[in-house]
Write a structure and sequence with these properties.
By secondary structure, the protein is of the alpha+beta class. The protein folds into two domains: 35 residues; 132 residues, Nucleoside Triphosphate Pyrophosphohydrolase (Alpha-Beta Complex), CATH 3.90.79. Helices cover 20% and strands 47% of the residues. It has three helices and ten strands; from the N terminus they run βββββββαβββαα. The strands form two sheets. Strands 4, 5, 6, 7, 8, 9 and 10 form a seven-stranded mixed sheet that branches. α2 crosses α3.
C-alpha cells in the first residue's frame, strides 16, 4: 500500500482534477504519483435493429485523428447514470432509448485515473427533432455488428470503450 505524503502540484479543469503527489511506497521508499480525479462516464451501444448499431465519428485532439466510436460522455454533477445515458445518446446521435441494459463497467486507465466507464446497450431508439451536436460529432453512422467487429480486428477501431462495447455485444449474441 502507498501513502500520500503531500501534493506537489495540482491542475483543476472543468472535467477533471490532476494531482502530482509525493508518496511513501510499501518498501518505505518515496516516489511520485500522478492521479486524475475524473467523474464517472457512460458509453452506449445503441441498436438500430438486432444486427446494426449507431456509431459516431469524432475528431480526437490527443491522437490527431477522426475516430469511429460508440456514443459516450461523463456523468454531470447531480445527474443519474440513466439521465447521462439519455443525454449523451441525444447529444451525440439525436436519438433516445426506450430500453437500456447494463453490459459492463471498467477502469480505462487504472494506473493514474479513478474514472470508471459504465457501458450499456440501448434498444428501441426514438428519433428526436434535435440533431446531434455538430461541434463534437461529425457524423452518425449505422454500422453492422459484423462490420464493427471486423474494424476492431483490423485495427480501424482503436478506442477502448468502443472495443469493449462491441466485444460485449458479440459475446451476448
Amino acid at each position: 500500500m502507498e501513502k500520500k505524503l503531500y501534493t506537489l502540484g495540482l491542475l483543476n479543469t472543468r472535467h477533471f482534477t490532476a494531482y502530482l503527489d509525493e508518496v511513501t511506497l510499501r518498501t518505505g521508499k518515496t516516489s511520485r504519483r500522478l492521479k486524475i480525479d475524473h467523474p464517472e462516464a457512460v458509453a452506449i451501444v445503441p441498436f438500430v435493429d438486432p444486427q446494426h448499431i449507431l456509431m459516431v465519428r469524432q475528431w480526437r485532439y490527443a491522437v490527431e485523428t477522426e475516430t469511429l466510436e460508440i456514443p459516450a460522455g461523463k456523468v454531470d454533477p447531480g445527474e443519474t447514470i440513466e439521465e447521462a445515458i439519455q443525454r449523451e445518446l441525444m447529444e451525440e446521435t439525436g436519438y433516445r432509448a426506450t430500453t437500456i441494459k447494463p453490459l459492463i463497467s471498467y477502469f480505462p486507465a487504472i494506473a493514474y485515473s479513478n474514472e470508471i466507464i459504465h457501458i450499456f446497450s440501448a434498444e428501441i431508439l426514438i428519433a428526436s427533432h434535435r440533431r446531434f451536436d455538430e461541434d463534437e460529432i461529425s457524423a452518425v453512422e449505422v454500422v453492422s455488428i459484423k462490420d464493427a467487429m471486423k474494424m476492431v480486428k483490423n485495427g480501424l477501431i482503436r478506442d477502448g470503450k468502443t472495443i469493449i462495447g462491441i466485444l460485449c455485444i458479440n459475446l451476448a449474441i
